[in-house]
Amino acid sequence: MLGKKLVTAQKRGETRALCLGLGMVVCSMMMYFFIGITIVPFYTKSVWTTETVCKVLKVSIKDQAPNSDGSEDEDVFPYPCLQVRVNLTASGQEVMLYATEDTLERNPKCSYVPEKSEKEVKAKIEKIASNFKNHQTVPCYYNPGGTQINVIHSRLYPPKGLLFVFLWPTLMFTGGCLIIFLVKISQYVSVLSAWQ
Questions:
Q1: Beta bridge pairs of residue 94
Q2: What is the pLDDT of residue 83?
Q3: CA-CA distance, 182 to 109, in Å (whole number)?
Q4: Distance, CA of 28 to CA of 135 (rounded, Å)
Q5: Hey, where are the domains in the chain?
Q6: What is the distance between the alpha carbons of residues 113 and 125, in angstroms, rounded to a whole number?
């Protein structure tokens, strides 16, 4: 009687462990899929792949406020426009420096585009401008293929960041496979011991 209860409890435990392992594998596959359709395209789309050093040539802030008369002017922004011109040491060209790939898409006339929720935007932009003025050389990324003449200060999704994003689903997948493997080994050993 006690043996039957022990076998039943063992089977329930094995079933739960198998469900946990399979659940971890399925969740990791869903995470891989989600990362593959959201983050990987941004990484592969970026043409700024080569890191170099840029020499800061000119830093300017254009204080621009929206028009009160309601007319649409494309050179008018609701925040001060920071423009940083640098000398690309790889080619010797004077180019515009942008904060990230996203900055160029959001506003190609400004080097830095603040988030909408940021408070004290002007103070932050002035601090960034003073940092560029104090450091005459900054690390930057450029396009070695030449399709994009501008440079960026930092990549949104660098290779190390992409590896870190894949770390958690990989650990979950490995853990799930390990649980399934251990349950199957346990079942195999119990069958062998039952035969003997």
A1: 87
A2: 86
A3: 59
A4: 43
A5: 20-33+158-195, 50-154
A6: 9
Residue type for 134, please? N
Relative orientation angle of helices 2-38 and 159-195, to the nearest 10 degrees:
160
Report d(CA 27, CA 143) in Å as an integer.
36
Other beta carbons less than 10 A from residue 108's beta carbon: 12
Model pTM? 0.63
Two structure tokens written together for 58 = 């000119």
Structure tokens at 52: 């170099």
Separation of alpha carbons 50 and 27, rounded Å: 35
The mean pLDDT value for 155-161 works out to 79
> Encoding tokens for residue 9?
């409890």
Q: Which pair of structure tokens corresponds to residue 18?
A: 């198998």
Both tokens of 98, joined, read 């942008």
Q: Determine the Cα–Cα distance for residues 19 and 94; give it in Å rounded to an integer.
A: 60
Name the range with the highest mean pLDDT among 112-126, 140-154, 173-187. 173-187
Give the C-alpha separation, 139 to 48, whole Å: 12
Hey, what are 145's tokens? 């293929």
Q: CA of 175: how far to CAs of 14, 19, 61, 162, 193, in Å?
A: 16, 13, 52, 21, 27
Give first-to-last CA distance, the chain, whole Å.
Answer: 21
